[in-house]
Write a structure and sequence with these properties.
The chain is of the alpha/beta class. The protein contains 7 helices and 10 strands. The structure holds adenosine-5'-diphosphate and magnesium ion (MG).
């Protein structure tokens, strides 16, 4: 469904050129959830922005359903690291934002409730915990009922309990809604919990170091099982190598 073909991204020109991504190719099947891990600054956000159509590849291309991505698509949603909430809008208004931009009138009640935000619809971001703010950001993206959900370290800088809760919610919503997901993370356990496959990137400029299959992914009980621990160990060794 998503095909990234020989993607390269270079910022700037001439002496100032910063190569961020260098010849990355991978695919994500319909309904699949893929985790992308790599050292900080290696080009992960750039990769997601390109898949979302917000930046143009310097070379190579990205196809969704065989169609080249040339701009933001209605069926693709992106969750950024800081949730990007508008402080002067309520939880409901923030969650509705992406829908309204697309001139859609659907209700966000169902998704707010699925994310445990019922009763907080009229609160403002400053009145919420950081974990709740992230969930509003997730609600905003999922309200679109996207076919493709791109997540850029959505759990970064959360305490581990909150992080695990939101990871579990994402797993439930993936089963329920059937979207195709890409989650960027530098948290090894998060990648093993949420990635059916794990794409490991090199330090900048990002190249594909390896792709790990993770067939155990999909159940809440996977976390903490011997297979899970083994996969975490393998991934830690790969990342510890030089990067
Ligand atoms: N708009 C930009 N202009 C110049 N350099 C950029 C720009 N955006 C990102 N970079 C550089 O590209 C590299 C990859 O950035 P990014 O994709 O944000 O990495 P990651 O998300 O893996 O931390 C970094 O060295 C960063 O400084
Ligand atoms: Mg980033």
């Amino acid at each position: 469904m998503i095909e990234v073909q020989e993607l390269s991204i270079v910022y700037g020109h001439g002496k100032e050129a910063v190569p961020a991504i260098d010849g990355v190719s991978f695919h994500v099947a319909e309904g699949e959830m893929v985790a992308i891990v790599g050292p900080s600054g290696c080009g992960k956000t750039s990769l997601l922005l390109a898949i979302d159509g917000l930046i143009r590849p310097t070379s190579g291309r990205i196809l969704i359903d065989g169609e080249e991505v040339r701009g933001v698509r209605r069926d693709v949603a992106l969750i950024l690291q800081d949730a990007g909430l508008l402080p002067w809008k309520t939880v409901r208004q923030n969650a509705e934002l992406a829908l309204r931009i697309q001139k859609r009138r659907e209700s966000v009640d169902g998704i707010l409730s699925a994310l445990g935000l019922s009763g907080f619809e009229n609160r403002f971001p400053a009145e919420l915990s950081e974990g709740m703010r992230r969930r509003v950001g997730i609600a905003r993206a999922l309200a679109l009922r996207p076919r493709v959900l791109l997540m850029d370290e959505p759990m970064a800088n959360l305490d581990s309990l909150t992080r695990e809760r939101i990871q579990s919610l994402i797993l439930d919503l993936w089963w329920e809604m059937g979207f195709t997901g890409i989650i960027v993370t530098h948290d090894i356990e998060e990648a093993v919990f949420l990635g059916q496959r794990i794409v490991v990137l090199s330090p900048r400029p990002a190249r594909i170091r390896t792709v790990l299959d993770n067939p155990g992914m999909g159940r809440h009980e996977y976390r903490g099982s011997p297979e899970f621990m083994e996969k975490v160990k393998v991934l830690r060794q790969i990342l510890g190598g030089n990067g």
